[in-house]
User: Fold Transcriptional regulator, LacI family from Anaerosporobacter mobilis DSM 15930.
Amino acid sequence: MGTITIKDVAKLCGVGVSTVSRAINNHPDINEETKTKIMKVIKENNYIPNNSARNLKRSNSKMIAVLIKGISNPFFSKMIKVIEEETQERKYSFLLHRVEEREDEIDIALELVKEKKLRGIIFLGGYFTHSEEKLSQLDIPYVLCTVGITGKWSKELCSFVAVDDFKESYKIVDYLCKIGHKRIAIITTSLDDTSIGLIRYKGYLQALRDNNIEPDMKLVRSMKDDIETFTMDNGYVVMKELLESGEDFTAVFAISDSIAIGASKAILNAGKSVPEDYSVAGFDGLDIASYYNPAITTIRQPVDEIAKAAVTILFDVIKKKADHQMCVFPGELIIGQSTKLI
Amino acid sequence: MGTITIKDVAKLCGVGVSTVSRAINNHPDINEETKTKIMKVIKENNYIPNNSARNLKRSNSKMIAVLIKGISNPFFSKMIKVIEEETQERKYSFLLHRVEEREDEIDIALELVKEKKLRGIIFLGGYFTHSEEKLSQLDIPYVLCTVGITGKWSKELCSFVAVDDFKESYKIVDYLCKIGHKRIAIITTSLDDTSIGLIRYKGYLQALRDNNIEPDMKLVRSMKDDIETFTMDNGYVVMKELLESGEDFTAVFAISDSIAIGASKAILNAGKSVPEDYSVAGFDGLDIASYYNPAITTIRQPVDEIAKAAVTILFDVIKKKADHQMCVFPGELIIGQSTKLI
DNA sequence: TTGTAGGCGTTATCAG
DNA sequence: CTGATAACGCCTACAA
Assistant:
């Protein structure tokens, strides 16, 4: 049944290909009657336009892409939904593309831009350490949404929206201090990993110091790199090890809720209790944090607002209504039952 | 800087386009020297081939797609990873595409097949109620992986791999009966929804009857359709309502772990205890089920095996090593601390 | 080993 | 309003 093309449809209808094209694309200059006739033939013969050919020829595509690193992260689920809604509202279509941990998001973006004639990109998650030269290759608007960035940041290149990881991390650790904890452990990424984990770790350090607590490296624990990072499994293993080390501490700050839950379970399985024996705090404000038992004290990131802002900014830039901007949202300290006054 | 094409590269190198093409595609008939020279120019000028043009021309693509309905479902996360690995091992590439709840997966598949010249498809999740006529349009091998299907099933069309939802549902409800529960509630999809929920509900009914328990419709609760289904939120709300109804029951079977966790939290928030006051059972065997406190009794679906089987079968069919097949995996009853003998 | 030319299925630009 | 026809960027015979 050799795949049917626009030519076949044209022949079947006794019209030219351009007329068929007009019918498919809701072009105004076309007789309603011929249009309905064409659409009928299309339906009957199950004609489906070839997107590759379309993309090849088309110049403006009304399509943006979301490149997401860590697609299994539940933190992104709601974001995707919001981004999708907001995009649809603007009559654009939306392509979700996952990028693997070791892949270079810029390379993928470059490829996609060519292939799909994208108008804009939202990067979700991951960590940006690309050279300006590399970034400047990407000549369409893009915004970095909750992606980690190091050092210098040129506002000309792209927008950025996220919470201030340092500040929020500081906030929750400061809270732990204020309710009396002095021996506060942290479960973070490995310290030579220049990621979001490093920033949160720095917030932790600063909070301790400002509360006159000398950081103790024996309480600084890194996720295992032979287990997927930012998972409950990882949190569990690290916490188990910490408990078995016999180190003295009364609270632990896990840099994500998943890790916090893994850590909590390790404590419970050791026959101890949260928060009676150990207070546990997380980060992100996932649904599961509040559903867990005990509910995890955490920093809620305003995902909806963040996602909305990302889309708004992106389209403002696309439509040249505004320049790129840096948009930092406040997180909210959610006090659950996993932490207690000491 | 008008996007650079293969022609430009050819000109820059002083060779023909076919030579450049050969270089890019690792074609054998090419002088190593000219090849390295070409690759150098490509790197220097950041040339990126246009995939649309490639797909348009190409006939066989060594690419499969995974169409996934409910991408935020953590149940699929591990599957995706496994599928990806297995696909890579076979030197194929792999395209992940999410389909929205209301979208028709077959239409999307058809489109993708044309656009990308796919060799095979794995459908993940969702529910198939398409006519044979529609299905037969999809003329490449595909396998349904943990997707619900109704009634008749023609094995010629495609493969199917999943657990037996009826049997597994029966298994866990039977377990509840065997440990002494007689008033067992269920939280499922709405009963006129012909989905996987219906099948699990039927398993529940059968288990009750086989244990000489008369089903009580007052204990059959449906998820709210104004809240996203299969979520903790939904489980929470439904359970809260059930508790407040004053209905007498000692156990509840939630047809997914997320729902079970929401339900558990509702019980806890009502000042009751799991499992002392109410036993709670789930379905799926998500990580969080075992990490929850108390660990949720559930049916663990062997996700790795399921995903592996899906890929294996798909490639067997692609390579014509085998016909389509129906592959049913056993689930495993995982007994947590959320259920107790009565 | 390399270059030339035709075509993949559409859309866009023209004339009619 | 409609129909040829030239791109779009690449691959692949076919020729050299």
